[in-house]
Amino acid sequence: EPEVTQTPSHQVTQMGQEVILRCVPISNHLYFYWYRQILGQKVEFLVSFYNNEISEKSEIFDDQFSVERPDGSNFTLKIRSTKLEDSAMYFCAIYRTSGGAIEQFFGPGTRLTVL
Amino acid sequence: GENVEQHPSTLSVQEGDSAVIKCTYSDSASNYFPWYKQELGKGPQLIIDIRSNVGEKKDQRIAVTLNKTAKHFSLHITETQPEDSAVYFCAASKSGGGADGLTFGKGTHLIIQP
Asked: Can you tell me the distance from the alpha carbon of B26 to that of B3, in angstroms, rounded to the nearest whole number?
């Protein structure tokens, strides 16, 4: 079973609409992250989240974005009023230890298409 | 903030040959440098990482070197195979975990020619 699942795998929305992207880690983790990747470009950090609070955020993560962990398991990214330039892959990541090492482990992503 | 430059953007090598991808970073406080492999339609997958207290690390056909003075690090893949074809990203952060987000390079599309 994958360590991190993301839903939906693909979301199509109209400009100006709100979207909620979900991340479900398989086990309990302390740190969660959201990244985005515009088609053909590099992966960009959006926000890190620890103990139900934002730890760090990038300049991309402006007021139209918010994150929360509403029920102690799902970790969500909300975009309040989508713009065309929000079209991208959005990856959730967790901080995990593996064989004594630590890593940021990425989920499979949600493709967001804003029309 | 941190800026990571990655070269080349595309690299084509013959199967069995070696591939080298290079990255530079700007923030001297960075001390964790992972490399991710991304296959089409999938999320980035960590393949190897290195911390600033180590100059080189090897895992089978993959090795990473780090020069903290020059602020650059490189990925070396030997005896390349068709399944190595993918996009490779270098990244940097101050800690590798915790609150820090990773700053990624723009990626290298590695093509293994049969």
From this structure: 5
Q: In this structure, what DSSP letter does residue B93 have?
A: B
Residues of chain A predicted below pLDDT 50? none
pLDDT in tens, B64-94: 999 999 999 999 999 999 999 999 999 999 8
Interface test with chain B among A96, A97, A103, A111, by most B beta carbons within 10 Å: A103
Look up residue B33 and give its DSSP letter: E
Strands of the sheet containing A19-25, edge to edge, are A4-7, A19-25, A75-79, A65-68
Residues A56, B103: C-beta atoms closer than 8 Å = no
Cβ pair A106, A78 in contact under 8 A: no
Residue B9 has pLDDT above 90, yes or no: yes
Minimal C-alpha gap between A16 and chain B (Å): 26
Alpha helices in chain B (DSSP H): none
- Within the 63-102 window of chain A, which residues sit less than 8 Å (CB to CB) from chain B? 91, 95, 101-102
B35 touches chain A (CB under 8 A): no
Per the CB < 8 Å rule, is A56 touching B34? no
Position A2 scores a pLDDT of: 62
CB neighbours of A56 closer than 8 A, spacing ≥ 6? A47, A48, B99, B100, B101
